[in-house]
Design brief:
2 domains, alpha/beta, Nucleotidyltransferase, domain 5, single chain, 43% helix, 5-stranded mixed beta sheet, 9 helices
């Protein structure tokens, strides 16, 4: 190995996907993900099952990631892990493994904030955003508008005060009897529906904050009323319901993003997080960017959902700045964005 090479092994275990990646000098060499199918029958992630599956998956996933990257463990310069946010049990598995691995190799440990990593997924491949840029981070647990001044200088301008957009998608899908995970299914069915067929309320919080609890309640009452009059209403209007709900959620997201871009006079705009894989959101962002003169950045699908490559690229920049964690760091300590 050349002395110039910086090889970092990264671990992501915040929820129900066990992922490991190897990055060399900022270039991702491998990115492995082991998914957990067991949660589908429960309609959501079961934390205890998730943590146990991580314990089963983490060693083989890391082993394959190193082999695919063509990097020997002796050549690893640092080990990174997702510190938070996420499921405590799942995070503990990744954090404890990373600490032990780093100690065994006598290399630095790097703690990574999960949402910061979603933003920095934009820097895995070209084209990469120019600073400053705005990033709309949308996932099952978070919805935020983030101002990015540099790789490690970020400010959350606004976020949801209750439910995340991804949670709203999944809860509505459950009301409609769709299988878990419901968000992707809503996106798929919405392609064949009329987004203007049914009208749902659009929340308008102050500043750049979001609220999605209202639309969940509105959809619940709407379905109860319609099904009382027509028991087959959902089956007869499923595509239109999905399209209308999706249209409303995306409208709320775009309203805040456009507001921030206008008031801060920023033209470089990105999206990140699991919900950024939604095809309609991606197209709406691109269309809006064309209309308003934005330079839009949208990561590939594999870098939108939870993955270790985004942890690795964040760790790369933290390594360059010497931002290492103490080996005594608590796996449940509050993670920061810097």
């Amino acid at each position: 190995m050349s002395d110039a090479n910086i090889n970092i092994l990264a671990i992501e275990s915040s929820c129900d996907d066990t992922s490991a990646a190897v990055i060399q000098n900022g270039k991702v060499l491998s990115n492995l993900i082991a998914t957990q199918k067991v949660h589908e029958m429960y309609g959501g992630v079961v934390p205890e099952m998730a943590s146990r599956a991580h314990m089963q998956n983490i060693i083989p996933v890391v082993d394959v990631a190193l082999k695919q990257a063509g990097v020997d463990k002796a050549d690893i310069n640092a080990v990174a892990f997702t510190q938070a946010p996420g499921l405590i049990g799942s995070l503990l598995v990744g954090a404890c493994f990373a600490k032990a691995y780093a100690q065994s190799l006598q290399v630095p440990l790097i703690a990574v904030h999960h949402m910061q990593a979603h933003v920095l997924a934009h820097f895995i491949e070209d084209p990469k955003p120019e600073f400053p840029f705005l990033c709309l981070t949308v996932s099952g647990g978070h919805t935020q508008v983030v101002l990015c001044r540099s790789h490690l200088d970020m400010e959350v301008l606004g976020e949801t005060i209750d439910d995340a957009a991804g949670e709203a998608f999944d809860k509505v899908a459950k009301m409609l009897g769709l299988p878990y995970p419901g968000g992707p299914m809503v996106d798929k069915l919405a392609k064949e529906g009329d987004p203007l067929k049914f009208v749902f309320p659009v929340s308008d919080m102050q500043g750049y904050d979001f609220s999605f609890s209202g639309i969940k309640t509105a959809v619940l009452y709407f379905l109860q009323k319609q099904q009382k009059e027509n028991p087959d209403f959902v089956a007869q209007n499923l595509n239109d319901i999905c399209a209308s709900v999706q249209h409303t959620i995306i409208k709320m997201l775009m309203n805040k993003l456009k507001k921030a871009a206008k008031e801060l006079n920023i033209k470089h705009i990105g999206i990140a997080g699991g919900v950024s894989a939604n095809s309609t959101l991606r197209q709406t962002l691109q269309d809006t960017g064309d209309q308003l003169g934005w330079q839009v950045y949208i990561p590939r699908f594999e870098y939108c959902t939870d993955n270790a490559a985004m942890i690795a690229i964040t760790a790369h920049y933290k390594y360059l700045q010497g931002q290492f964690a103490e080996m005594s760091i608590s796996p449940t300590a509050r993670a920061t964005w810097s």
